[in-house]
Give the backbone structure.
Amino acid sequence: MVGAGPGLRNTARVKVLSFDGQRLADTGIDFVAFPDSYKLGVKVALGDVDGDGILEIIAGAGPNPLSPPRIKVFKIDTTGGVGLWRVASTLSDFVVNFGDWYPYLFGVNVAAGDVDGDGVDEIVAGASPNPLQKAIVAVYKGDGTFTGTRFQAYPANEYRFGVNVAARDLDGDGIAEIIAGPGPSPFSESWVRVFKGDGTLLSDGFLAFPETTKLGVKISSGNVGE
């Protein structure tokens, strides 16, 4: 799955491709997740947020200075076979509440994982790169219900420009942890931290690159070894 990058004219276009081991093929899913006024692309993630065993598409508004932290979740229908996949319905459409007195804009960063161990993925939302925004993380159910988990991943006086997020079971207990990386502040180091699903700090983490490397760090997770 790919989402359009932050070009000034880019819409929130999402496209899903299939790989058969040799080549990529269009699945048939190619759509714009938000109205055309939501420029600068789109953030994307996949997760089974309704527990039916099929991944949903999670779209977060791109970093347009006028875009709220809006998330939409789309169910997909693959019964037609590759090339005829389609978006079946919109499961949820909501704006994240990051809990501050001023409105959070510049869109939202998104990830998904089962952070509470109930067998269903949650949506992990990270504040996007507004220069004023703290590194706030909030967790939602797939239907847009707030779980009650909201926390600040980095000190506010040092780390602004939001926070990048990922989710993965790092310790093998069957429950995903939340992985955070600072947003693109010119002063932020590449400090990766790990939290439990309720926001409790699990590991103070590490610097991914030398201290001279600023503008934060983008993160992902996966099993790349044996």
The first strand starts at residue 2 and ends at 3. The mean pLDDT is 95.
